[in-house]
Amino acid sequence: MNFSLLVGRRRTPTCLLSYILLSFRKGSRRRQCSATSPIWSVPVAGVAPWRSVEPSENGEAILGSLPFAQGTVAYTIPSTVVPDGATGILVFAWAALTGVNAAVAWWHFAVNVGGGSQNWFSMLVAGDPAGGTTAANSQAFWLPFPFDRTLYVTLADNSLMSPANVGTVEIHGYYPGPA
After folding, report:
1. Cα–Cα distance, 14 to 40 (Å, whole number)
2. Contact 175, 88 (CB under 8 A)
3. Which of 48, 68, 121, 175 has the fewest CB atoms found within 10 Å of its own CB?
4. Dihedrals phi, psi of 37, to nearest 5 degrees
5. In sequence order, what are the beta bridge partners of 135?
6. What DSSP string runs through the chain?
7. 13 — pLDDT class (breaks 50, 70, 90)
8. Comparing 4-13, 56-65, 96-105, which segment has the lowest mean pLDDT?
9. Are 90 and 168 in contact (CB under 8 A)?
10. For residue 25, is pLDDT > 50?
11. Burial group, residue 175, by CB count within 10 angstroms (0-12, 13-18, 19+)
12. What pLDDT does 114 receive?
């Protein structure tokens, strides 16, 4: 899949970007940018178009808190966030650990893709067993859209039991699928 990157009408940073992109196109001249430059597009091969989801505009995109006890939590992805027919989801997760926590733990974010298999990604976090520091991590990653509209998040290795820990699981975008 391909899409076109729209460039123009601004001096920076879009003109700088257009200058760079055109510099690498075979046989092209470097284009001088001005405030009145028309918008034009540069095809970007291998990148599919996607729709962003803004959790501050659609609160249902925040699926819930990260689990801090070992085990699995299932989050349903609302159709008001990702419509039927979508083929992929952009999952964003963040965690901030404060207080006494295990030295290391990680979450697996998994979706069911049919045929009894799952596709997943992991996010690692390092805690402080002495409780003297705050540690944070975040990750955004694409997963196939689950046929059951469910994202499974599993905390593995160690529980992170400080009551001061915070973190969420969010949807930040999706592939709309074929038109």
Report:
1. 11
2. yes
3. 48
4. -60, 135
5. 97
6. -EEEEEE-S-SSSHHHHHHHHHHTSTTPPPPPP-TTPPPEEEEEET----EE--TTT-GGGEEEEPP-SSEEEEEE--TTTS-TT--EEEEEEEEEEESS--SEEEEEEEEEEETTEEEEEEEEEE--TT---EEEEEEEEEEEPPTTSEEEEEEESS----TT-EEEEEEEEEE----
7. very low
8. 4-13
9. no
10. no
11. buried
12. 84
Give pTM, 2 decimals. 0.74
Kindly indicate the confidence band of residue 177, based on its pLDDT and cuts at 50, 70 and 90: confident
Contact between residue 63 and residue 167 where contact means Cβ atoms under 8 Å apart: no
- Cβ atoms of residues 81 and 55 within 8 Å: no
Provide mean pLDDT across the span 104-125.
95
Q: How far apart are CA 131 and CA 41, in angstroms?
A: 52
Which residue shows structure tokens 């159709």? Answer: 79
Q: CA-to-CA distance for 20 and 13, rounded, in angstroms?
A: 11
**Alpha carbon of 96 to those of 54, 136, 141: distances in Å?**
21, 4, 18
**Burial group, residue 40, by CB count within 10 angstroms (0-12, 13-18, 19+):** middle
Q: Read off the pLDDT band of 33 (50, 70, 90).
A: very low
Which pLDDT score, from 0 to 100, does residue 46 have? 63
Q: Is the pLDDT of residue 175 over 80?
A: yes
